[in-house]
Amino acid sequence: MSLPNPFNTRGTFEANGATHSLYSLPALKAAGYAIDRLPVSIRLVLESLLRNCDGKRVTEDAVATLAGWQAKAERTAEVPFVVARIVLQDFTGVPLLVDLAAMRSAVDKVGKDPKIIEPLVPVDLVVDHSVQVDFAGSAEALAKNLDLEFTRNRERYQFVKWGMQAFDTFKVVPPGIGIVHQVNLEYLAQGVLKDGNDTYYPDTLVGTDSHTTMINGLGVVGWGVGGIEAEAGMLGQPVYFLTPDVVGVHLTGALQEGVTATDLALTITELLRAKKVVGKFVEFYGPGAKALPLVDRATIANMAPEYGATMGFFPIDEETSIYLRGTGRAEKHVALYESYYKAQELWGIPEKGQIDYSVDVELDLSTVVPSVAGPKRPQDRIVLPQLKDAFKSLYTAPASDGGFGRAADDYGTTVEVCHTGIVSESGGGSQETAEAGSTLASEQEMGDHPTPEPVMASHDHGGKVTNGSVLIAAITSCTNTSNPSVMLAAGLLAKKAVARGMTVNPLVKSSLAPGSRVVTDYLNKTGLAPYLDKLGFQTVGYGCTTCIGNSGPLDPAIEKAVVDNDLVAASVLSGNRNFEARVHQNIKSNFLMSPPLVVAFALAGRVDIDMSSDPIAKDENGVDVYLKDIWPSLSEIRDEMASALKPEVFKALYSDFTSQNPKWNEIPSSVGNVYEWDRDSTYIQEPPFFTDFSLEPGAIAPITGARPMGIFGDSVTTDHISPAGAIKKDSPAGRYLGENGVEFVDFNSYGSRRGNDRIMTRGTFANVRIKNLMVAPKEGGYTVLQPEGTEMSIYDAAMTYKQRGTPLIVIAGQEYGTGSSRDWAAKGTNLLGVKVVVAESFERIHRSNLVGMGVLPLQFKDGASAKTLGLDGTEVYDVVGLTSDVKPQQDLVLRITRANGTSEDVTVACRIDTPIEVDYYQHGGILPYVLRQIIARN
Questions:
Q1: CA R_g for the chain
Q2: Are 264 and 300 in contact (CB under 8 A)?
Q3: Which of 162, 331, 376, 591 has the highest local Cβ count within 10 Å?
């Protein structure tokens, strides 16, 4: 069979003394395309189009359009990107596997072979999101947390094991190995791959986690998508996206002494958020980019979702080869990798003027200073010495300005906690006493966690909890734990602190969750691990932990002190996300920072401190210790770095996961090509997406008589929408579990129950901090049922509306759907009966996911908003002009009929952005569309 040869680009290259095949990008020059001027990231996507140009999924017109990319052109064309592989984490991967199992069941019911549902590209699922920090501060924490993880998630893991045997291309990295993005960087990514026709091509991917972009630091094109898009990609559909603008970030200079890669990542996040790069590719270049170690590039790329970009890409050069060799990839493979990218003229970091970018941004690395970000968003950077004043200012600032809206007189409220309970208070609050280790904190607030060991307040500066107290200090998250420079800096700082006899206040819950076992290896070999242990930063697990809300419980007495006195306590973490109620639902102030700063703030025990001039604490001799006294120098870090990356360590730790994980081996699994659903399971249920499945799609028609489920302000995140964290006992999901015989202690988390739509639908829009303006100032998942005007939970109201046949609408402000690529934020929206979401602007992934679930996204125009229109939730809404011939991004009319009978027509933009999305919407979502395509082919 002859292979396609679009634009006569099929060619060869030499590597390792042999000739190999490729689709040549430089060959496009002969067709008149200025390939040399294209951003590197665009060229890598273009190669996929060339190689997959079959006239159906990818046409020659699509290749020509992208090859002719113009930096400043209007963006109307969609790119059909066929990826090489797909990466999943377990929170998003399990529901994706549930959907695949449901598709097999649907195919089986219509008399077809269920094996026609099979991933057509390799899929790797890394189990990294399930471990929780129930135990911390002891040598046994790791083993105890792992035991509890397997106990809690046994049923889920059985289901994952069924998937391993049912699907040929579905592989699993079991618990206890590392965080998906670090495992991807250190092990899964190969840089260049080969197909069945011996054609070599670039490693590309999408992943069901926003921070898939971390791999951009290795020169690999990839980004986060929702699970529903990933499923389509698995089943042979291209990942469609609008041709992007590419923002070129020209880096010059070098980081100064005392500045970390984390400081740089936070600075870039703030800079690029202000440049409005949502939905755009960002490409770093110039001498500053060239000089950055790959681990620093990966740290910056990881934060792309925080600055809003689709990618934060670094091109391929000598540094990528050094990293591949250092992490155990075979020398022969690295030689082939280099030869391939040189043959494609993709080798080397570009210089200024070589590439045409849509937008040009400059950053001199020498201007970066130590920073933190918070207390509610990762883009809100605060220069380190200004944190003290900033925190005090935010304490009284209104919530609309990112503050906490408190009275200045309450700032000094202090509660002293010790082993006998709260012994004294000042500045107001209850006089109730709570003993450490007791269960006085409410079950609803404690969530799904068992009571931890008692905390003894015996430190010199007492067990005082006040506004600004650090109660959680976590070295966690792929962003920084993949970077030896900042991890070793944390170890060196801990060593210097221990040498001065410093200790961490025992009211601080400190933890270390390395991104892979490699980190433990080099911390042990450098002799730094014992010092982190001494300060309470013992390893608690190999997973995301605190950064995704798996921070585990606070001591009940501490939590009671915080809740009863409504304190604005703090967490400090080396993560990438700090949205409201994410880290812990009762810790209102959360700051992102480098691992060494996490240790420093744990020692200080508070965030209202100027680290440039205030002492952190006193040493064992009563002498003040300042940050500068214990901060490691760049030369000290570089000396330790020499022993950090050893190829043989990576080879050993990333081989034969089965023998290294006996607990995983003990998990049984069912067999067969079709999953046998257990109707009594509270973890895995057959979802309703294919109920009454028909081979024919529906018709697009106007939406009439919709009632508002919620009216929301700006920056409603997927953390607010999608069920996450602890399940409250008195919530709709908690009541469901209780009615199904599940004891409160066994509730587990929403994330662990993503395979059960009954629970997830009940938890959608149920975040304790979400603010529905229809019930303001009340927080939480509540709405007002209309026309009765009765306040109730969003779930209960949605079910009432569903019984009445009333469609629902959501009204929102700017940046709706910011945050993680949570498909349940769209799935839950759909299952609640929401037919349309109207927002001032959308975050990229969530807008796409809404369309993928058959929910219509509309965007206000000309400055219109819920506020300017005076919406209060009593209105009835119609979407006028919505027909089967709807065009991408066309204008529609939102008709608002008020309670007094008057109506108003408002022009809105239809945010179905591409032609394929029109098809998805007509079919009721991407899953029914793909299933009908597969059945038609077979």
A1: 27
A2: yes
A3: 591
The whole-angstrom separation of Cα 381 and Cα 397 is 17
**Three-class SS of residue 704?**
strand
Query: Are 889 and 911 a contacting pair, CB within 8 Å?
Result: yes
The DSSP line for 859-906 is EE-TT--HHHHT--S--EEEEES--TT--TT-EEEEEEE-TTS-EEEE
Number of Cβ atoms within 10 Å of the Cβ of 283: 25
609 CB-near residues (< 8 Å, 6+ apart): 387, 388, 601, 616
Q: Are strands 204-207 and 221-224 parallel, antiparallel or unpaired?
A: parallel
Beta-carbon count within 10 A of 803 CB: 9
Report the alpha-carbon distance of residue 79 to residue 311 in Å, rounded.
15
Which pair of tokens denotes residue 254?
A: 């070098």
- pLDDT tens, residue by residue, 258-295: 999 999 999 999 999 999 999 899 999 999 999 999 99
Please state the three-class secondary structure of 121-134 as a single string.
Answer: CCEEEECCCCCCCC
Top-confidence range, 455-459, 661-665, 702-706, 932-936: 702-706
3-state class (DSSP) for residue 314? coil
* Torsion of Cα atoms, 270 then 275 then 278 then 283, to 10°: -90
Which residue do the tokens 């995140």 mark?
717
Give the Cα separation of 733 and 727 in Å (integer).
Answer: 7
Helix (H, G, I), strand (E, B) or coil at 569: coil
CA-to-CA separations, 79 to 53, 70, 244, 248, 930, in angstroms, rounded: 12, 14, 9, 20, 18
In order of 23, 255, 296, 482, the CA distances from 293 in angstroms are 30, 12, 5, 12
Distance, in Å, from the CA atom of 585 to the CA atom of 77, rounded to the nearest integer, reads 42
Q: Specify the pTM.
A: 0.84
The residues that bridge with 312 in the sheet, in sequence order, are 282
Q: Which one-letter DSSP state was computed for residue 539?
A: B
78, containing H or E segment? strand 78-81
DSSP 355: S
Measure Cα distances from 852 to 281, 400, 409, 572 in Å.
22, 32, 49, 36
> Which domains, from first to last, does the chain contain?
83-242 (3.30.499.10), 371-648 (3.30.499.10), 699-720+772-922 (3.20.19.10), 723-763 (no CATH)
Question: Cα-flanking dihedrals φ and ψ of residue 633, to 5°?
Answer: -85, 160
How many beta carbons lie within 10 A of that of residue 868, not counting itself?
11
Residue recorded with tokens 């490699």: 518
CA distance 481 to 490: 11
- DSSP track, 398-409: -GGGTS----GG
Residue 932 structure tokens: 């009908």
CA of residue 151 relative to chain centroid, distance: 25
Dist CA 879 CA 205 (whole Å): 37
Buried b (16+ CB within 10 A) or exposed e, 390-414: bbeebbeeeeeeebbebeeebbebb
Sheet holding 221-224, edge to edge: 170-173, 123-126, 85-89, 204-207, 221-224
- Residue 65 dihedral angles phi and psi, to the nearest 5°: -65, -45
Tokens representing residue 675 in the block: 């999953």
CA-closest candidate to residue 185, choices 527, 519, 583: 519
Q: Provide the residue count of the chain.
A: 938
Query: Residue 162 in 3-state DSSP?
Result: helix
Please state whether the peptide bond connecting residue 596 to the residue before it is cis, i.e. omega within 30 degrees of 0: no
Going by DSSP bridges, is the β-strand pair 589-592/570-573 parallel, antiparallel, or unpaired? Answer: parallel
User: Per-residue b/e over 5-27, b at no fewer than 16 CB within 10 Å?
Assistant: ebbebbbebebeeeebbbbbbeb
Confidence of residue 441 (pLDDT cuts 50, 70, 90): very low
Name which of 561, 588, 581 is nearest 440 in CA terms.
561
Q: What is the pLDDT of residue 506?
A: 87
Neighbour tally for 270: CB within 10 Å: 18
Token pair in block for residue 688: 């309703």
